[in-house]
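Q: How would the structure tokens look for this protein?
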Amino acid sequence: MQEKEKSITLGDIFHVLWKNIILLAVITGCVFVIGAIYTFAIAKPTYKSNAAITVAIDYVSESTHQTTYDYTNSIRAVVTVADTIKNNSIIDPVVERYNEDLKDGNNTLVLPSYKLKYPLDESKWQTVSSTGLKEMTSKSLSEMVSVSYTTNSMMVTITVAAKNPIVSEYFADAIQTKCIEEATKAKEDGTKGVFFFADGNMVASSEAKEGEYASPNKKLYIIIAFLIGLVLGVIVIFVKEFMSNKFKTKAEIEASFDEKIVGVFPDRRLKKEQKDNKDVFLVDASIRSFEPYNKLLSNIKYSNLENPYKVIEFTSTLPDELKSTTAANLAFCMANNKNKVIIVDLDIRKAVLHKTFKVSKEAGIVDYIAGDITKEELIKHTESGVDIITVGKDVINPVAVLETSKIKELIEELRNEYDYVIIDTPPCLACSDAQIVAQYADGIIFSLALNQAKKKDILDCLNALKGVDASIIGISITKAESNKHDSYYYYYGNNEDK
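A: Here is the predicted structure in token form.
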């Protein structure tokens, strides 16, 4: 037997997202909050200051001897200037001057102190200062500077991005000033200078101003944080749901196996009692409580009309999949429907049903096999209307007990005396007891708790049972989520006389 391949539909995706809507909201909210904290409290703002220079190459007319601008060569010179600005010949002197200004001002930068050396327009000097600054390296400044120009334009724009608006203005203005100084010096000396032209003019097209806020884009960051949270939440949910090695829904089980789903049972125990309480309990004797067990009983009845199931075995993959709870309450429901029913506890390794039906564990099946008690002493009657055979005394080798012919003979006798014989056996992944008992039963109800056993282990158990020619009546899903049908049964059960 192999697990059937299944496809994921759009409906499955929406169902999974809606089922995990709280998880999605939590993940999205957490990432959004983290993004907001980073944007407004952690991320340091960046400020940008721009300064522009215009480059013009002189042209002397041979006929008139008048000096004009050579537009073509000026455009070419713009490219050269743009490529040269970030070279050490420009950057190094600017950094050196900056570090000197910091030392002179005790790590306080007053703008524009460098204009004392390269005066342009003293009326625009600023008195604003910035403290707590550190010395700069040429490499660091080069990374802060970007140079741009427009095709067929004689203007070069210098942009400096810094964490301090004063620093960004300082360097934009200093680089602009240094470029103009180098161009002026080359023209006066008749040399090509750092820009490789001797007949060029360079003027300030626009003065640097205090750096304006550039980044982070707070609105954009917040939107991105929200989207990242949303996408991350969806990914987590998809991995949790579709990549899980456990069954999470009834639909997954139906899509994976050929066996019928004969019952679906919410885990009411975990809502009424502490989660660490593993005792098997009986439901209240009410229409609402019996309804899922009546459905299970009907499915058992109509599964094989020609050869009705009378001896029914219950097993599961792992402990605590509520197989014993389902078996006990099915027997209780059968008795309430006026059926003569007996439940046999063959989970010799971990007997619990004697507690459920409030009888003594002693004088049980082990004692009967040993010949210590009679059949009449073996069968105990309970207030629930269900007869029970308990395990009895402890035994070292349960398999030896289960394989005796006396067990088979007893079950055949019970088949003739009762309408139904319910047998509780251990989980089949733990031992081979369930496979041994399967030869005495008409069919098996396989309990499968959602989000518990691994898919591979479940498949191995079903294959093991089929390997001994066991007839699997169907799968009983336990620990399922409560749904709208529960509310309907509550309303119907409390208004049955209306």
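The chain has a mean pLDDT of 85.

DSSP finds 19 helices and 16 strands in the chain.

Upvote if useful.
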